[in-house]
Amino acid sequence: MTSDSSTPDAASDAAPSALAALRIDADSDRPPFEQVRVGVIDLIESGQLLTGERLPTVRALASRLGVAANTVARSYRELEAAGVIETRGRQGSFIKAGRHDALDAGFAAATEYVETARELGFDDSLIVEMLNRVLGRT
């Protein structure tokens, strides 16, 4: 009853919608790796990226931004060294440090719910259906 989107590999290339706003300015004095690094930090500070949220793979983000994979890899390394993100092996890279407010707590609760529902064997469409019922949308 599980769906393909519940596997780490399927989800690892899907960029959070907040990262869609991330752009590289070729005319900037700031190097591209620094633009990515600062862009991720800005998205965290604005609450658009939350603690525990998965980042796209290095290759996927590099492709979307039109930069070399090494550029994004350097950004991720520097973010990890600063304690902003963490890499969990094959599971990918995740936001480690956030604003630690209600948004982060809510995201953590939602993540835990989805993980538990998947462990029970529910596929993603049923999980969404259940949430809609709880929210009174059906």
Automatic annotation (TrEMBL):
UniProt entry tagged with the keyword Cell inner membrane: no
Residues annotated as domain HTH gntR-type: 30-98
InterPro entries associated with the record: Tscrpt_reg_HTH_GntR, WH-like_DNA-bd_sf, WH_DNA-bd_sf
Domain of life from the UniProt record: Bacteria
Keywords assigned by UniProt, alphabetized: DNA-binding, Transcription, Transcription regulation
PANTHER family per record: HTH-TYPE TRANSCRIPTIONAL REPRESSOR YTRA (PTHR38445:SF9)
Protein name, per record: GntR family transcriptional regulator
Protein source organism: Gordonia terrae NBRC 100016
